[in-house]
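Hi L.,

As promised, Methyl-accepting chemotaxis protein:
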Amino acid sequence: MHTLWRILTVGVLVLASAGCSLLQIKLESGIEPLPQEQLNMRVFSRDFSNVFYSGVENAADRIVALERDAAAQASRPVDIMIESRALMWKIGAEQALQRSIFQASPIASMVDTWALTAQMAAFFDHGAGAELFGPYQAIAVQTSQALAEEFEATAKGFLSRADYQSHQAFIQGYVVANPIADLTFARLSAFQGWLDFRGISELEAVTTFGTVPEVMSDISDRMAMMSEQTPKILGWKAQLYALHANLNADEVQRTLADISETSRQFQQLMAQSPEMMRTLAVDMNQELAPLLERLSEVTDDKLAQLSAERQALVLMVRSERQALEEMVTRERMAAAADLDAIAQQAVEKVFEQIGVTLKSLILYFVLFVLVIFFAPLGLGVWLGKRMAVRAS
């Protein structure tokens, strides 16, 4: 009898421990994090942006410095077109990189950035930009090729052999079919072409945008890079505008210095011969009056032109600032929409798991009640029958 009670007690404890284990509810958010390979793509692309910016800026500045040195040695004016093209290279290339590197999918960013570096190398080597910098063209060619090779070599390090060969084949064909036309670097994203090349849909290639921390980290990176690059790009655009505004700061300074020296000599002469200078002043007034009137007209025209150009610069800066504000607003709205969808999925998943757990708890509670209340009764009936049989 005691043995039977011990067995029954052990069975009840086992069932009770199994039921208690159901209380360990695991809440899954329902949001898949980015695969490690895609995280590596995103980190690599963001790190490469700094290399790209410094490479392009150093090469463009070196071209300008060499042109100024050559002009000074040959006693000739600086070629404004070379300086303008160097500024346009920095502006166009860095804006194009921002568009390619800040895409929602790390795969799209990696593919499009790879295509951009290869297109820029082809543009300066044998494309439409093969003669933009004259005797300094080799600097642009070497820099763009070095950037393309560095990106390709790093991509080879974290892609499998088959994936790397597939990507490389696509990039080579894409560069031939979609060359860059000018220094504005106007181009379409290569991601859609890559999807068609691989024969997959965007839904298959992009299965998740990452968890909430990953999305917020991506937005933070975008804001940091925009705040760093936008002032530089606006400054280069202002320099480009000044080059073509028909204003030369050196000539203005020389003219002011000549006027100051002439005025000083004239004052000395007046102090030495006052009577002669009064006569000379009358004659000069008669002779120089038409010239002064003409100079006044030219000055008014130049001031009007300068005012119009200044207004154009203000409008350009205002439009750039408005475009930046609109882009920031779009990014914030997209992030808010993503967070709303993530929160909705998390709530639905939590309630789904709670429902499943409650059903399991009810089932085990019923079994527990059956064991506690009906098992002793059945055991007593069985023992009573056995004892009655033995008594008879």
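The first helix runs from residue 2 to 21.

Thanks again for sending the construct details.

K.
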